[in-house]
Structure formats: C-alpha cells, structure tokens
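User: Batch of two.

Assistant: Item 1 of 2:
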Amino acid sequence: MGKYEVIIWWSKEDGCYLAEVPELPGCMADGDSLSEVAQAVEESIKMWIDVNQERGIEIPEPKGRLKYV
C-alpha cells in the first residue's frame, strides 16, 4: 500500500476527529483522538483498496502531498 495523503481535522459538530483521503473517493474515518483516527483511516484505506480491487476498479497511485496553484 502506498502513502496516500490524509487530511485530519477536529469536528466540533461531531465531537471527534475526522479524516479523509482525497485520492480515494469516499475513504474516510473518525476517532476520539489523533492516534485513534490515524489507525482508523489506515484500516479504511486498506478496506477501500481491497473492495475496489475485487470490483476490478483501478487503484490510483499515491501522488503524495496536494499542491494548490
């Protein structure tokens, strides 16, 4: 598994940390602490890749850090 960029932020509305993986549409996780959300998003990435490989969907190569122009 490659190193995908993960964006993590605190959601006051949800009362927890949220994480998303921009390169993997719909790949998200949550957790009560930074370590918990980091572990959860790693599991989500693995699951996202496994499910999409089974469906025959091409898995994008990690691009690393997003660049804004």
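Item 2 of 2:
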Amino acid sequence: MSFRFHPEAEQELTEAVQYYEEIEPGLGNDFAVEVFAAVQRAIAYPRAWTVLEGEVRRSFVKRFPYGVLYAEEDGAS
C-alpha cells in the first residue's frame, strides 16, 4: 500500500523537522522517523484508530505532540 502527504501537511512536516532540529541537532530527524512510523502503522492497520470526521482517522506520533490524519482512498495500492 502506498501513501502521499497533502501538500500542506508536507509543508507542516518540513517546518516541524526544522523547528526540532533548531532545538537540538538530530531531534528533527527523530521527529521525522516517528512521523513515518505513525504512517506505517496507519498503512498496516488502517481501521485501528477512531474516526474523527467522515473517513478521517488519526495515528498518533510517539514522543511528540502530533498525529497523522489519514483516510483510505478507493483504489489505493
């Protein structure tokens, strides 16, 4: 299964990585790793999290106060 970020989410991710990197070198990378782990959990178990609205769900990011919002798309592979 594949995934893609909404352009605004991708921009937010980039800015958050830069923010954490400014706080402590390497922390931005740690954040990015945790975000992608949350994405992988959502891909592996797409219905594991509670629906927030419509078909949108949230997979929490460990160690950081973020969540990955996602929805399954028809025909996604």
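Strands lie at 51-53, 56-60, 67-70.
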